[in-house]
Specification:
The structure is a single chain. With 720 residues, this protein is α/β, with parallel strands linked by helices. Helices cover 32% and strands 24% of the residues. Helix 9 packs across helix 15 (547-557).
Length: 720
């Protein structure tokens, strides 16, 4: 019996911890969510996975499986520690590594004896080295440890079987003895064990997922051609699969396998080489890039203002990478009180403040009256020198100088000598002095006084970066101005009210949310804190790519152009739109129409809705005015939290009742035995779009359905 600690009780952690307990090991599973731990102790599962609840109950009763919130308890007797925390993702595959970092840091601070630390979380290539560095640098005193990468290949809905009967186990480490020790844990499973180095093991996970996604996207593109030519993609895939070099797996056409950004002129606050904070547009990271095909850059030494959601305080954060890409889709504009505005792709993470603290949600999920944060407190920044040396003349940087600079920004004429000073401090009338946000509070205040600050303040400028810098400067002095814009420029107004000193941020409330379909370039950046300060001091989240898009991302950061992987992502995105286009063809206009969905989870036998094609299609249809009814055996509670406007139904027949069309989005077994004669009598219009090719087209037409599947054209004209 081995002593194992598993960090995280999510999908990977709970399945692996329970699986190792079933093999006879003593497993302590640690999670910082006390409610989740208490629920597990009471036998309540946080996820749906066939067979898991029974397995957990059996091993808890046998005394082999334990749940706790205490790292001390988990690590006390442990020989092996599995990191199985979440790396949340968005549409481009956001991989938020802060939970991996937190786990590594806490392990380092808590461990009292040598450990083998195994990373099971899905992470970018190179994370194993990064985890080792974190542990080594965080330990209060040196204690030996080894890091092993052991990527998980569990399929949701079949995870218990996949754990007990894996195709292979991949282990990567720089310490051969550590890999061999972990291999002993997997020997009872009697499956091939491959041992390699850390980065190769991590790459195997990404390459495997990307290859499977490539097969899916390939057959989906073939399905569209089949529809146009009148061929049947089911038979095409069957004929291909008999070739042993190809095989039948992952050749099922459907609605796709299951990034978020800003506009290029979004203002961010970047530190220059002297540590002085200046506003600049996000696209400036690409200003020296002449090749339009380059979509990822790694800015050397660039830092930005960011916000630590763990501490609730602002920080300076390194820019790890900046990205740009063509985007066709919806931009969401979130308008708030005080004239603040957030404009991002619909899937971009936005930080809102709730009674339970900071919450990262998609822009799609922001609602009126939500609380958005505006930065007030500045982090520790480089000091401004006490004087300037201009051609041998010493000019003190004092209240007198700042007052005169403020006067210039307000429109006062200046002498040629003073113009020299303005040139040196980077104040050209379109921006604040390059060190303005680094000034002491007294000198920041004098700058404002020179611009006309009294008991109240009003200032107009046609220059965006000046306006946004000025707003942040005022907020750093506990003045929260309103910001309004029109076609001529930006108006900043302050009514004299001051907020409390010492607060890191002020609150603005969402007033309105608008959507617009665009075809343009969009931009993003990545910091270790996964936040960035934007226009008006607004605190915004950010994304980082994972899985297929991560592989593309990692290739681009090393100067390559991964054309195939990019095409895979484009085909996957289009496949979802293709279902919506079919409904438009059949209904002519979906506005006001009732469309039913059978299935919400991204696949059968799970309640996981991340990357769900159903939800992506539903979002498109709801944006165009459709009313949605849906049923899923287990995923409705999760979906209701994400998309409360969907009417949840008690069964598939309830979905069909009065529907203008029904979409089959998830291939649950119970949908295979539906009484279609009953369904067609319930529907307002007998239109069915089968996104999973579950039914026989000839029979559906004989019953009277207008039936459209994926890639199944029959009359020579691509019409089913």
């Amino acid at each position: 019996m081995k002593q194992i600690c598993v960090i995280g009780t999510g999908y990977v952690g709970l399945v692996n911890g329970t699986g190792f307990a079933e093999l006879g090991n003593n497993v302590v599973t640690v999670d910082i969510d006390a409610k989740k731990v208490e629920a597990l102790k009471a036998g309540k599962m946080p996820i749906y996975e066939p067979g898991l609840e029974e397995l957990v109950e059996r091993n808890v009763q046998a005394g082999r499986l334990h749940f706790t919130t205490s790292y001390e308890e988990g690590l006390k007797e442990a020989e092996f520690v599995f990191i199985c925390v979440g790396t949340p993702e968005g549409v481009d595959g956001e991989a938020d590594l802060k939970y991996v970092r937190a786990a590594a840091e806490t392990i380092a601070k808590t461990m009292t004896h040598p450990l083998i630390i195994i990373n099971k979380s899905t992470v970018p290539v190179g994370t194993g080295d990064w985890v080792a560095d974190i542990i080594r640098n965080t330990q209060p005193k040196p204690i030996p440890f080894s890091v092993v990468s052991c990527p998980e290949f569990l399929r949701e809905g079949a995870a218990i079987n996949d754990f007990m009967h894996p195709d292979r186990t991949v282990l990567g480490s720089l310490d051969k003895r550590a890999s061999e020790a972990v291999a002993q844990l997997y020997l009872p499973l009697r499956a091939p064990i491959m041992m390699t180095d850390l980065r190769t093991a991590e790459m195997i996970k990404y390459a495997s997922n990307a290859f499977l996604a490539t097969r899916i996207s390939f057959i989906n593109e073939i399905s569209i051609i089949c529809e146009k030519l009148g061929a049947d993609v089911i038979e095409v895939a069957q004929g291909m699969g008999f070739d042993k070099r190809i095989g039948h797996h992952f050749l099922q056409a459907g609605v796709g396998y299951g990034g978020s950004c800003f506009e290029g002129d979004e203002t961010i606050f970047v530190l220059d080489e002297d540590g002085f904070v200046n506003a600049q547009p996000l696209r400036a990271f690409f200003e020296d890039v002449t090749d339009e095909h380059i979509e990822v850059v790694k800015p050397q030494g660039k830092r930005v203002l960011s916000f630590n959601l763990e501490t609730g305080c602002p920080e300076v954060a390194d820019v790890l990478v900046a990205t740009r890409r063509p985007y066709q889709g919806d931009m969401v504009t979130i308008k708030t009180s005080m004239g603040r505005e957030i404009r991002v792709t619909h899937d971009h993470p936005v930080i809102r403040l709730t009674d339970n603290g900071f919450e990262r949600v998609l822009a799609d999920d922001i609602r009126p009256d939500d609380s958005i944060m505006m930065l007030k407190m500045l982090p520790d920044l480089a000091s401004v020198p006490s004087q300037l040396n201009i051609n041998g003349e010493i000019i003190p940087i004092d209240a007198h100088l700042m007052n005169h600079v403020g006067g210039y920004l307000a429109g006062a004429n200046v002498s040629a000598r003073f113009q020299q000073i303005l040139d040196v401090i980077g104040c050209d009338g379109q921006s604040l002095p390059h060190f303005a946000l680094n000034l002491s509070p007294d000198l920041r205040y004098e700058l404002l006084r020179g611009m006309g600050l009294t008991a109240q303040f009003e200032f107009f400028t046609p220059h965006k970066l000046l306006a946004h810098s000025l707003v942040l400067l005022m907020q750093s002095l506990n003045m929260i101005p309103s910001l309004s814009t029109n076609e001529t420029g930006y108006r900043i107004q302050w009514d004299g009210a001051q907020t409390r000193h010492g607060e890191a941020f002020a609150i603005t409330h969402v007033l309105d949310i608008q959507r617009e379909t665009v075809d343009q370039m969009v931009y993003s950046l990545k910091t270790p804190l996964d936040t960035v300060i934007t226009a008006g001091g607004t605190i915004i989240g950010q994304c980082f790519p994972k899985d297929v898009s991560a592989l593309s991302y990692m290739a681009q950061t090393h100067g390559m152009h991964p054309q195939l992987l990019n095409a895979v992502m484009e085909i996957n995105a289009f496949q979802r739109k293709h279902v919506a286009l079919k409904l438009h063809d059949l209904l002519h206009d979906v506005a006001g129409k009732t469309i039913g969905f059978w299935g919400l989870a991204f696949k059968e036998n799970t309640d996981d809705i991340r990357e769900s094609p159903a939800l992506a299609i539903i979002s498109m249809l709801m944006e165009q005015g459709a009313k949605i009814r849906a049923y899923d055996p287990v995923a409705m509670p999760n979906t209701a939290q994400e998309m409360p406007d969907i009417v949840m139904c008690k069964n598939p027949y309830d979905v069909a009742d009065g529907a203008d069309a029904v979409v089959v989005a998830t291939p649950w077994n119970e949908f295979k035995q539906i009484d279609m004669e009953r369904v067609i009598k319930l529907m307002k219009q007998p239109i069915m779009v089968d996104g999973r090719n579950m039914y026989e087209p000839t029979k559906m037409r004989e019953l009277g359905f207008v039936y459209r599947a994926v890639g199944r054209g029959y009359n020579g004209e691509g019409i089913g």
